[in-house]
Amino acid sequence: MSEGYEAELIQQRIEHLDELTKLENGTRYPNDFQPSCRIGEALAIANEHEDIGSQEIHVQVAGRAISKNSFGKAVFIKLRDQTGTIQAYFRQNDLPELLFSRLKLTDIGDIVGVAGTLFRTRTGEITVKVSDYRVLSKSQRPLPEKWHGLKDQELRQRMRYVDLIVNEESRQVFITRSKIIKYIRDFMDSRGFMEVETPMMHPVLGGANARPFKTHHNALDMSLYLRIAPELYLKRLVVGGFDRVYEINRNFRNEGISNRHNPEFTMIEFYWAYATYLDLMDLTEELFRGLVKDIVGAETVTFRGHEIDFAPSFRRLSVLDGLRQYAGYEEADFNDPVRAAEKARQYRVPKEVIETIQKTHAGGNDRDHALELAMHVFEEVVEPHLIQPTFVTDFPAVVSPLSRRKDSDPSLVDRFEFYIANAEFGNAFSELNDPQDQAQRFRDQLAAKAAGDAEAMEFDEDYIRALEYGLPPTAGEGLGIDRIVMLLTSRDNIRDVILFPLLRPEG
Length: 507
Description:
This protein is 37% helix and 24% strand. It is of the alpha+beta class. The chain has two domains: 3-137, CATH 2.40.50.140; 168-314 and 388-496, Bira Bifunctional Protein, Domain 2 (BirA Bifunctional Protein, domain 2, 2-Layer Sandwich), CATH 3.30.930.10.
């Protein structure tokens, strides 16, 4: 649609609005129409009666006019609200002239209210035979006729309000998103977890390794970070005696934007006292299997060109076994920094990453040094093979600053990440509850930050103090809600499942 033609249509609609205002004695946007029910409820009432036309059931419904068709002295309008779409039938001979004057000034996109009796047309469509009619809000801009192609995909994300009007498929994505969150909330509530809220502005950077967004509180004259994770606050609550807690939360990470990453995203994070990361694997498997069955109605989902099967037990693969299987690692590669660096270069880990890790570990523990290099190879080489649901376990402690060390190998931790279609969906571990060990890991993070790691955490003295009061043996997990919605709606772009994703400014 050209800008000139669109301007003409806008002017025409404004003229319609002016004429409607005269018909309504100066009222430009009426606010006195009260629906007796929503459209979905009207449809349900009609479906309860076989011979609805003989029942004289009167309804008043309101919604957006999405089509308008004239057949001589009969006019049909379809209107839609959040709950459904219904047809309204106008017969000129049965209606006062005022109603037909309003109808003539109605444009597609207008918000309208109709009153009348329910009946079925010859084709069986549930319809309101109109006895009263109002235009409640004029759509001054015409709706787009077709949205397709890459350019229009960005328009849909930028003008989500229009996307939801014209694109039923997009509407269903966000209806499904709401159902997913409700299912997860009910799942956690039914297992004795309590939903809580924690701060979104943090004075100390912690809870995950990520670049933060910074802000400033003027009255207190203090710098703050937007939350990158709620972890340390949720574990404070476990210290305080709430032994099963969860939060469905917004997090903010000042990182790159891609089909899988948005700077603002939604997670559920939960903590379970007297449980281990093994218990969380069982819980996660139960959650996903039930979620897929409830939302999709099957045990398989097609995602990113793969058929993902949730019926079998989920695969469990340790980090070191993954590197042995897919990258040819031998035991010495996990202990010798020189060999580990050679492997990293072989698999094209960036030179600056290798140099930063070497600088951080200069004079330090060789196994930690080698394992941190190995993790970058894991991301490049092993992750692409993780198609079916897989728990990747036993991460190096050096990249897990908040996780409990394994009793059998203190260089590793009791942790897993959950992968589907080579994308991470969750991160979980048995929590580190030794305050001295945690304090040293915070110091290691400070050293990494000094060496150039922009994602390293800070030293949180109050969290150490909380641990000194005693954190019970606890397991915690975070799951990405946006990625779960992508999975269950077969969307490959995270911006398609976020109502208002961050985009560059127009122009």
